């Protein structure tokens, strides 16, 4: 693809100018347990899920109040899951909803892993559909993450590949749009897994965008890269933080390592959201993989057994996450809708970044949305 080498060279140069060689290297220690560490210049832009329940409620409680202030009769929430290359399905579904005139204006969007990469475009609205479609079907992902790019070591792919993919579609104009939506009272949350603390960090991306400038764009990109850094496939993302006058680094990976889908943090999942009485709440879970079993004979051998076992574990975790969100909605009387890649879709693989496959998944999501058959009940 023309321009690929330029993208990679600029990404490597920018990375090395900030931190030296990206990986491997001697790391800066993480902050001490219990310290209030934050990225320099970005106060109160994230929630650590181990925080007390009142802090959690305050972090999420501002958004429903602002929705009521905007005169919203109903609160609409979109949760985007992980799924690797399967994110093409979710991207297609959103574009298909736009084409059908059935895409809600979401008051809150959450994203994990590939869902984190979709989330900013879902948040800012259909005016960005062309860029969202290009991110998953334009060929850059297939070029950057082709099998020929695999370099086994600390991870299958070097760090600059995922960083270049994110940087090619996230820019100052998008950041400004996110900041404007945040100022209007809407919220965009992205989850990463903090390996050092072994907890989830939920980042308020609108608050980050509202700071503005190159530093905000850099942190915005870093969080997206971290959330999509599937362990073993991509190296962890190091995020610089400060506590008082001391500097530290935290190691973050794919938020799906803890939860592949979320609406609220785990401490709130079995609580009634009393502050969310807006007149009605609709929750949409867009799952970028298939949730149902795909029976077939497993060949005898270490690799096929390992792959099938990983697939089973992953699918089970996604089903559990969807059921947790469904339970939260049932407790609170919220309407719940979910969508996933159909079981009969052939060739699905979260690690197969093939342009033709991703285009087919995009088309599948778009077709279901345009036909009004996207959202279903979880059986």
TrEMBL record:
<dbReference type="InterPro" id="IPR016035">
    <property type="entry name" value="Acyl_Trfase/lysoPLipase"/>
</dbReference>
<feature type="active site" description="Proton acceptor">
    <location>
        <position position="254"/>
    </location>
</feature>
<keyword id="KW-0442">Lipid degradation</keyword>
<protein>
    <submittedName>
        <fullName>Patatin</fullName>
    </submittedName>
</protein>
<dbReference type="GO" id="GO:0016042">
    <property type="term" value="P:lipid catabolic process"/>
</dbReference>
<feature type="active site" description="Nucleophile">
    <location>
        <position position="113"/>
    </location>
</feature>
<feature type="domain" description="PNPLA">
    <location>
        <begin position="78"/>
        <end position="272"/>
    </location>
</feature>
<keyword id="KW-0378">Hydrolase</keyword>
<feature type="region of interest" description="Disordered">
    <location>
        <begin position="1"/>
        <end position="39"/>
    </location>
</feature>
<feature type="short sequence motif" description="GXGXXG">
    <location>
        <begin position="82"/>
        <end position="87"/>
    </location>
</feature>
<feature type="short sequence motif" description="GXSXG">
    <location>
        <begin position="111"/>
        <end position="115"/>
    </location>
</feature>
<dbReference type="GO" id="GO:0016787">
    <property type="term" value="F:hydrolase activity"/>
</dbReference>
<feature type="short sequence motif" description="DGA/G">
    <location>
        <begin position="254"/>
        <end position="256"/>
    </location>
</feature>
<dbReference type="InterPro" id="IPR002641">
    <property type="entry name" value="PNPLA_dom"/>
</dbReference>
<dbReference type="Pfam" id="PF01734">
    <property type="entry name" value="Patatin"/>
</dbReference>
<keyword id="KW-0443">Lipid metabolism</keyword>
